[in-house]
Amino acid sequence: MSIKAAMETVLVVGATGNIGVSAVTAALRSQRNVLAIVRNQNSADKLVKHIGSSKGITFTEADVLSDTGVRSVVDQVRAGKLPAFQHVFASVGGEYVTTPLQEITTERLRRNFNTSFEANFFAYRDSIGYLLEQKNPKSTWTICTGSQGDIGTHPLPAMTQGPLFSMATAAARENEKTNVRFNEIYLCYRVEVDSDAEAHGVTKASDFASVYEMVLDNQDVRSSRVRVENDKEDLVKLKYAKKY
Ligand SMILES: NC(=O)c1ccc[n+]([C@@H]2O[C@H](COP(=O)([O-])OP(=O)(O)OC[C@H]3O[C@@H](n4cnc5c(N)ncnc54)[C@H](OP(=O)(O)O)[C@@H]3O)[C@@H](O)[C@H]2O)c1
Q: How far is the CA of 14 from the centre of ligand 1 (A)?
């Protein structure tokens, strides 16, 4: 088998965000290709700007907020129109704001649940079957959540993370004995794309990328929550425990 044929591909949902850019960086740095779902050409251009190149990335446009978006991408993979993938990473996200609960309108609440919860649920529901069918023993499915779901200083992102914790526990159980290692990365501090991180004094996406690289390569990390609590030792050694 040629080196190219053996190369793995990561489907990244939310690829153009702070955490998504980090996942794309991790995949490329570990000699994997990326299938990035983007909403439009502007978002694709933004990702290329953050990564510095489009080498190794296949872009496909879909609305990941709709319940047919990820499904349509997987259908195209099955039809051989897009590259096969062995891993999925999801981090679609809404607003990161401190708006108090009583000021959150119904429309805004629903929009944020659609973006931060439903889109990640659709991504799981509509891609896991494909990974199970492929039976690749190296497959993984990874989601990024964070401590907001517990500490609640930012009510909107906090409330959408709560159900993601539950979804991740259910998915961890469902895949305990399958070919897919399902894991949740629980991030406890702020990560931003490198240019913004420098301006705001927070952790760079390219540094946080080491966590997903380790998840991809460590066969022992399964059905676990990977805690990332500091930007030193937790970026060089995984701290993980079974979710249940
Ligand atoms: N950043 C952190 O430090 C941190 C820490 C803990 C947990 N998390 C969690 O990780 C997730 C992502 O965070 P992030 O910082 O990467 O967020 P982000 O930079 O705002 O990125 C959000 C991603 O979702 C996509 N998206 C948002 N609204 C969309 C829409 N209407 N249609 C299509 N795509 C849409 C964005 O696409 P576009 O680029 O096209 O807008 C982007 O790819 C969130 O759930 C967050 O709670 C983040």
A: 6
Angle between helices 205-217 and 18-29 (to 10 degrees): 50
Domains of the chain, by residue range, sit at 3-242
Label residue 5 by pLDDT band (50, 70, 90). very low
Are 65 and 119 within 8 A, CB to CB?
yes
Q: What angle do CA 142, 236, 4 make, to 5 degrees?
A: 55
Return the CATH number of the domain spanning residue range 3-242.
3.40.50.720
- 22, 39, 43, 48: residue to mutate for ligand 1 pocket, most atoms within 8 A of CB: 39
Q: Is 149 in the pocket of ligand 1 (CB under 6 A)?
A: no
Query: Mean pLDDT of all residues in the chain?
Result: 96
What string of DSSP letters covers 72-90?
HHHHHHHTTSS---SEEEE
Residue 157, pLDDT score: 97
User: DSSP characters for 14-36?
Assistant: TTTSHHHHHHHHHHHHTT-EEEE
Ligand 1: which of 11, 16, 19, 64 to mutate, most ligand atoms within 8 Å of CB? Answer: 19
The tens digit of pLDDT for each residue in 138-178 reads: 999 999 999 999 999 999 999 999 999 999 999 999 999 99
Q: Which atom of ligand 1 is nearest to the CA of 193?
A: 19
